[in-house]
Amino acid sequence: MSSLFRKCMVALTGVVIIASVAARQPAAQTPVPSPYVGADACKDCHSGQYASWAQTKHSKTLNKLQAADLEGTACIKCHVTGSPEMIAAEGATPSFPNVQCEACHGAGRLHVEAAATGDSVTARPAKTTEETCTRCHNEESPRFKPFYYTAMVGMVHR
Fold it and tell me: Which residues pair with 97 in a beta bridge?
C-alpha cells in the first residue's frame, strides 16, 4: 500500500469513529421554560396583593441568611421560591429570591399564560393552607417561634 493511501484510510477511519460517537450523543434540546415566573409577573394583575407582600418579611427573607446558610438547601429552601430541584441547582444565586407569590400559591406560568388569553378560570393559583405555611414555619427552623396559622394568615395580604 502506498503511503498516501494509508494516510487516507487512517483519516477516513478517524472520521467514521468521530461520526459514530457523535451519532450516539443526544441531540441538543430546547430548554423547557421554568414553571415559575416570579412576583413581577403577578404585580400587573394583582397590584394590591403585590404591594402588600412587598412590605412583609416574606419579600426580604433571603437577606436574613448568613453566608453559611446559603450552602445546601436546609436553610435556603424556605427563603427562596422554586421547586426543590431548582433550589438545589441554583444554590446561593436563586432565580426567584425571597418568599414570592409562587412559594405559597404554586408555580404561576400556566396561570399567567391563561390570563393573557382572557381565561380567568383555568390554572388558578393554589389556595394556601396551614400546611403551606408550616412547611417552613416549623420546629426545624433555628429561629422558630410558635406559629398560629389563624392569627397569621390575615397578615400576608392586607
Answer: 80
37-68: string of b/e by CB count within 10 Å (b at 16+)?
bbbebbbeebeebbeebeeeebbebbeeeeee
d(CA 70, CA 73): 7
39-155 adopts what CATH topology?
Flavocytochrome C3; Chain A, domain 2 (1.10.1130)
pTM above 0.85, yes or no: no
Residue 90's identity, in one-letter code, is E
Neighbouring CB atoms inside 10 A of 141's CB total 12
Residue carrying the nine cell digits 421554560: 33
What pLDDT, in 10s, does the model give residues 3-36? 666 665 655 555 555 656 666 666 667 777 899 9
Domain ranges of the chain: 39-155
Residues 38, 39, 40, 45, Cα dihedral to 10°: 120
Give the DSSP per-residue string, 110-132.
Answer: HHHHHHHTT-SSTTPPPPP-HHH
Render 38-52 in DSSP notation, one character per residue: -GGGTTTT-HHHHHH
